[in-house]
Design brief:
The protein has 269 residues and is an alpha/beta fold. The chain contains six helices and eight strands. It has a four-stranded parallel beta sheet with strand order 1-2-3-5, with no helix packed on it. The protein has a four-stranded mixed beta sheet with strand order 4-8-7-6. A hairpin with a 2-residue loop joins strand 7 (210-219) and strand 8. The longest helix has 16 residues, at 58-73. The termini are far apart. Bound molecules: zinc ion (2 copies). One zinc ion binds next to loops.
């Protein structure tokens, strides 16, 4: 459940008449991170989605099984959500690390998912060419490890729903640095729910901790806000420049970051 958005959960066909087939509405939660109907100037602070994956949910278990099947048969197109019920789809808010075993998959379809984050292991999908999380309304950022998918050439991301997008320039959540807490990091504070290795060098995260950074970089078709979990300042320093038309250097997020002017947002008078 989305703890940030004080909206009731919507079950089943409750609003079926208003929005069409109830099965679609039952498959995702609402998100109010970017309230473009009431764009605020100056922008308000944004946070990461704090939800944690329920690893006992039938939808999660189904996803694990679908990944096992796809890894075993070496398929090139993976569309797990179309094989799930709407209720199951809603229960999947991230992908399991085992997605990194899908090294034969060229085309990953996550259309209209309920995802709020993706794991760094997606960077191990070495054959990935087409990445389609389109209309995943709660997916506002991506792991920097996505840049390791060297064959990626096409993406369809709902770009007005990502941090720092060129049309509205919503802010980026403020990032953390320092030692990781014991156990799993709080995804509402850190973004990811697991940090095991450096996004840049792949080395271990030492007791010194993590240095997080945002980088807006072109990945396939789109410029995406990429979250870097680095082992050191040196690894942050080794990052490439940000994409043209975006903040050109890695930054730590928060309202202090000055972005280029929004293309469509209203301006203060
Ligand atoms: Zn959101
Ligand atoms: Zn490193």
């Amino acid at each position: 459940m989305n703890e940030q958005a004080p909206r009731p959960q919507v079950f089943g066909n409750r609003f079926a008449d208003a929005v069409g087939p109830g099965d679609i509405r039952a498959s995702y939660d609402l998100c109010s991170c970017f309230d473009y109907a009431h764009v605020q100037v100056p922008a308000r602070q944004v946070r990461f989605h704090p939800e944690r994956q329920d690893t006992s949910a039938p939808g999660w278990l189904h996803m694990l099984a679908l990944i096992d099947d796809a890894a075993a048969d070496g398929r090139e197109v993976f569309r797990p959500l179309v094989e799930m019920s709407p209720e199951e789809r809603r229960q999947v808010i991230t992908l399991p690390p085992s997605v990194g075993r899908l090294t034969a998959v060229k085309h990953l379809v996550l259309y209209r998912s309920n995802l709020v984050r993706l794991p760094p292991e997606i960077g191990a999908m070495a054959s990935l060419e087409v990445f389609e999380p389109y209309t995943s309304q709660r997916l506002h950022w991506f792991p920097y490890e996505l840049t390791r998918c060297g064959n990626l050439k096409s993406s369809t991301v709902s770009t007005r729903l990502i941090f720092g997008n060129i049309k509205y320039r919503p802010p980026f959540p403020a990032l953390m640095q320092g030692p990781l807490p014991p156990g799993s990091p709080d995804p509402g504070l850190w973004g990811p729910d697991s940090v095991t290795s450096c996004s840049v060098c792949g080395g271990p995260i030492t007791e010194w901790g993590v240095r997080q950074a945002w980088l807006s970089a072109r990945v396939a078709t789109d410029v995406l806000p990429l979250l870097v979990n680095a082992c050191s300042d040196a690894c942050v320093g080794a990052l490439p420049p940000g994409a043209e038309g975006h903040v050109r250097v890695p930054h730590s997020g928060g309202l202090g970051v000055v972005q280029p002017e929004a293309r469509d947002a209203p301006r203060p008078r």
